[in-house]
Design brief:
By secondary structure, the protein is of the alpha/beta class. The protein is about 25% helix and about 25% strand. Strands 4-5-3-9-10-11-8-12 form an eight-stranded mixed sheet, with helices on both faces. GO terms for molecular function: D-amino-acid oxidase activity; FAD binding.
Length: about 350
């Protein structure tokens, strides 16, 4: 039986985000576990690149159950995704995934804000969580819950995904595309003609010829990476500084530092770090999690770097769909927004099911 040639694409030569990041690499990994496919990942950016065009390295990287998917096929895939991530945390420490306590604080005053709406679709029913003690709730929040989840050190995890793909025979090449079918016409796959293209171009699906999905818009998230160890993950879906600002704290495994965020400015293409927002992020993080600095101010944060990542959000949710474009079948997998890491496995499973 002859193998089918599959190209997972992510790079196009335009002005903004274009990569086969965590979604593309996870999809390639799962497809490579299935016999009968010869797979090439063709992307502009690879692990090790730090560029505004490449969102995956800037992400906090964690897992939060999605209440909006209950009772759907996607919910079943999400359970399988959790099983894979949990297995990595327990049995594959070299992947950079580890278990960590996760505290989520809620304030009624944030209801209706842009950031609260984003978190609302992510948060699972409170019955799945334990309620935190009253002294924590009294810190100015209305409710607080805690559960154990996974935190991902993206600087380790992205290269690990590549290594697993390489072990399964996946080929990686740098390439830019202006049209989705260029992946076929340029004969990127050395094995001959292309049987299938998997479109993991993220935000650039809005500009990629042959796709041009105008439902895809950026939602930049600004972060500060520090050496201080919080020892846990903390989230609150709103702050007193604006309805498009949030606070999240994620301590990565293996000396990966702690991510302080952030913002959720939907529709904003600005890639520049805003200095006063960085200060607000640090102040809110220190107030919410005093253990970061031992109860001291932001001058006691040991800063590694500042960054901005453009989340590839899509009105109506992620698109995982098979489509005939010209003479070639294309499976689209893009639009995960701020849930790229946790969604990567269930999107890949869905993509695999459509082949």
């Amino acid at each position: 039986m002859s193998q089918k040639n599959v190209v997972v694409i992510g790079g196009i030569n335009l002005t903004r985000l274009s990569n086969a990041g965590v979604a593309g690499r996870t999809t390639a990994l799962l497809l490579s576990e299935r016999s009968g496919y010869r797979i090439t990942v063709a992307a502009k950016h690879m692990p090790g690149d730090y560029d505004i065009e490449y969102a995956s390295p800037w992400a906090g990287g964690n897992y939060m159950p999605k209440v909006s998917m209950r009772g759907t096929l996607a919910a079943e895939w999400d359970k399988k995704a959790w099983t894979r991530l949990l297995d990595l945390a327990i049995n594959r420490p070299e992947s950079g995934v580890h278990l960590q306590e996760y505290e989520i604080y809620s304030q009624a005053k944030d209801n209706g804000s842009a950031s609260a709406e984003w978190f609302a679709e992510l948060l699972a029913p409170k019955s799945l969580f334990r309620t935190l003690s009253k002294d924590i709730v009294d810190r100015g929040v209305d409710s607080a819950t805690v559960f154990t989840s996974v935190c991902i050190n993206t600087a380790i995890y992205l290269p690990w995904l590549v290594s697993q793909c390489l072990k399964n025979g996946v080929v990686f090449r740098r390439a830019d595309f202006k049209h989705v079918l260029e992946a076929s016409s340029r004969a990127i796959q050395s094995g001959g003609s292309i049987d299938l293209i998997v479109n993991c171009t993220g935000l650039m699906a809005s500009r990629l010829g042959g796709v041009e999905d105008k439902l895809v818009v950026p939602a930049p998230g600004q972060i500060v990476v520090v050496r201080n160890d919080a020892g846990k993950m903390v989230n609150t879906p709103g702050t007193d500084d604006g309805d498009d600002e949030v606070c999240y704290i994620m301590t990565r495994a293996a000396g990966g530092g702690t991510i302080l965020g952030g913002s959720y400015q939907k529709g904003n293409w600005d890639s520049q770090v805003v200095s006063n927002l960085a200060v607000r992020i640090m102040k809110t993080a220190v107030e919410l999690c005093p253990s970061l600095t031992g109860g001291k101010g932001i001058e006691h944060l040991d800063i590694i770097r500042y960054g901005v990542g453009l989340r590839p959000t899509r009105e109506g949710g992620t698109r995982v769909e098979k489509e005939r474009i010209g003479d070639t079948w294309v499976v689209h997998n893009y639009g995960a927004g701020g849930a790229g890491y946790q969604s990567s496995f269930w999107e890949a499973l869905s993509t695999k099911a459509k082949l």
